[in-house]
Design brief:
The protein is an alpha/beta fold. It is 41% helix and 18% strand. The relative contact order is 0.13. The structure holds nicotinamide-adenine-dinucleotide.
Length: 325
């Protein structure tokens, strides 16, 4: 029997987590032979909700559930963890400016970074979902220097899945026939969805350039807002799906010639980017389950890349001025 994997989930009383926990425990993501210990973290006022969620998880009668704990102290709940799914964040409220959102969230990720530094296994893998996820992860990494930078990810995988789904729909093929899409940059509307290396059924994609530029790219960049407008709340089940799918990618060697998009610290040097920001790039998981950046993909639109880079540098400069990093 495998040793249980200890997974911390923050924002565990929220809607993404609600759609995520049962997926994790089903065994589809980490394997039917991988026991899981869950540490659920949310704000103190959400304790009652966490108690209810614990009841539902127990009622799920999952053979893979080894242990479950919940609370609001990251130091207690990040102790010895293998994986952290950091979903909890302060949402943007009406009239709130982006800089207020940044500084409110920075406080959360300073604390959580320190708690990971204090207690997490040095090999822990972290996925930051709470927005602004790239800069939140940058702050977190600053306070958790012991973590391997290639193990700290900001979630771009939802953008990637959205991008693949739209191409499959356009080409009338199955989503699994679409490979090689890349999402560069920030998880925001400046992101750069890129088809320069995309294949459909193993062949060059053959998509119309006009459709790519004027329909596909803007649609992927603004898909989050489109969902909010249509559904009346922010995407949760699809975000949960992307989070567990990325975790699966991080824990499974990537097939030859393939990659997935994720935002990691730019200090890898694979592309000429400003260091010290978390930027979406193509990544692979090696046989030893370490993560590497796939180099050598030519940017089809450097101007767009520089725009999203500039946005991330601006967010980092703001954090510096505020004394956050
Ligand atoms: N990267 C992506 O692709 C992506 C996609 C969708 C949503 N998101 C982001 O994910 C986040 C969560 O979304 P949701 O729909 O689950 O929101 P939600 O409001 O339903 O849940 C968020 C939860 O986080 C908790 N929380 C707040 N501060 C916390 C802290 N310091 N420690 C622990 N928990 C804390 C809240 O109490 C709440 O229960 C949001 O920031 C959202 O913008 C990211």
């Amino acid at each position: 029997v495998k040793h249980p994997l200890k997974i911390a989930v923050t924002g565990a009383a929220g809607q993404i987590s609600y759609a995520l926990l049962f997926r994790l425990l089903s065994g589809e993501i980490l394997g039917k032979d991988q026991p899981i210990s869950l540490n659920l973290l949310d704000l103190p006022q959400m304790e009652q909700t966490l108690a209810g969620i614990e009841m539902e998880i127990i009622d799920g009668c999952f053979p893979l559930l080894h242990e479950i704990k919940y609370g609001s102290d990251p130091y207690a709940l990040f102790k010895d963890i293998d994986v952290a799914l950091l979903i909890g964040a302060k949402p943007r409220t009406k009239g709130m400016e982006r800089k207020d959102l940044l500084s409110e969230n920075a406080k959360i990720f300073i604390d959580q970074g320190k708690a990971l530094q204090a207690g997490a296994k040095p090999t822990a893998k972290v996925i930051v979902v709470g927005n602004p996820c790239n800069t939140n992860a940058m702050v977190l990494k600053h306070y958790a220097p012991k973590l391997d930078p290639m193990n700290v990810h900001a979630l771009m995988h939802l953008d990637e899945l959205r991008a693949i789904a739209q191409i499959a729909h356009k080409k009338r093929v199955n989503v699994s026939d679409v490979k090689g899409v890349v999402i560069w940059g920030n998880h925001s509307n400046t992101q750069v969805p890129d088809v320069s290396r995309c294949t459909v059924k193993g062949q060059p994609h053959g998509l119309d350039e006009n459709w790519i530029k004027n329909e596909w790219q803007p649609r992927i960049q603004t898909r989050g807002a489109e969902v909010i407008k249509t559904l009346g709340r922010s995407s949760a089940a699809s975000a949960a799906n992307a989070t567990v799918q990325l975790l699966h990618q991080l824990m499974t060697p990537t097939s030859e010639g393939e990659w997935y998009s994720s935002a990691v610290l730019t200090n890898h040097g694979a592309y000429p980017l400003e260091e010290g920001i978390l930027f979406g790039v193509p990544c692979r998981t090696k046989q030893d389950l370490s993560c590497e950046v796939v180099s050598g993909i030519l940017w089809s639109d450097e101007e767009m890349i520089r725009t999203t880079e500039k946005e991330l540098v601006g967010e980092r400069e703001f954090c510096k001025r505020e004394g956050v990093v």
